[in-house]
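User: Just a sanity check before I run the rest of the batch. Below are the structure tokens for the first item. I only need the designed sequence back.
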């Protein structure tokens, strides 16, 4: 996101999210905070929710790109959890303001990409069908989403390092078995 105005709008939103839930933040508050007009805001974003989604897409892409080169999914998962943990007030304010359907749609898109990296890495050099890959990726995507949502709902009491180590050990021992089980059935 190279656009200066978009960066300023995102900065204003994150500042406001430290103070209020997303559903209480207005376009006027955002534009007043960064000194642009409402028309400028609407030139870049449809509404406050689209701006918030842009923020999370940007951060997620940053984390995935950082770790995708090395295929170090554990580091990427830990970085993602650390981002959530360090911004837990923002996360809680967003989580309390959006519907479960909106959250699921966003997480499904983002986490699927991460789960695909994990599954491909663990099955590197082995033969399997595209259908098996898709089913296994969906399985792990759903596991990661469930774990993260539960963690958020419990106010992120566990440290990111604990969560990352736990799920890393689970993935380490199960991916091959999941692939074999799927291949037997399909």
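Assistant: Here's the designed sequence for the first item:
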């Amino acid at each position: 996101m190279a656009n200066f105005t978009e960066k300023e709008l995102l900065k204003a939103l994150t500042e406001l999210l430290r103070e209020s839930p997303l559903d209480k933040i207005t376009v006027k508050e955002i534009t007043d905070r960064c000194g642009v007009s409402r028309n400028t805001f609407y030139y870049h974003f449809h509404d406050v929710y689209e701006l918030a989604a842009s923020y999370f897409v940007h951060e997620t892409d940053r984390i995935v790109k950082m770790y995708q080169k090395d295929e170090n999914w554990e580091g990427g998962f830990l970085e993602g959890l650390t981002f959530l943990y360090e911004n837990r007030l923002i996360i809680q304010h967003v989580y309390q303001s959006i519907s479960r359907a909106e959250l699921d749609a966003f997480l499904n898109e983002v986490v699927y990409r991460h789960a695909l990296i994990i599954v491909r890495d663990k099955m590197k050099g082995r033969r399997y069908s595209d259908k098996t890959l898709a089913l296994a990726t969906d399985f792990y995507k759903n596991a990661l989403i469930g774990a993260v949502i539960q963690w958020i709902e419990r106010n992120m009491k566990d440290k990111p390092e604990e969560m990352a180590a736990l799920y890393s050990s689970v993935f380490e021992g199960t991916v091959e078995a999941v692939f074999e089980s799927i291949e037997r059935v399909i």
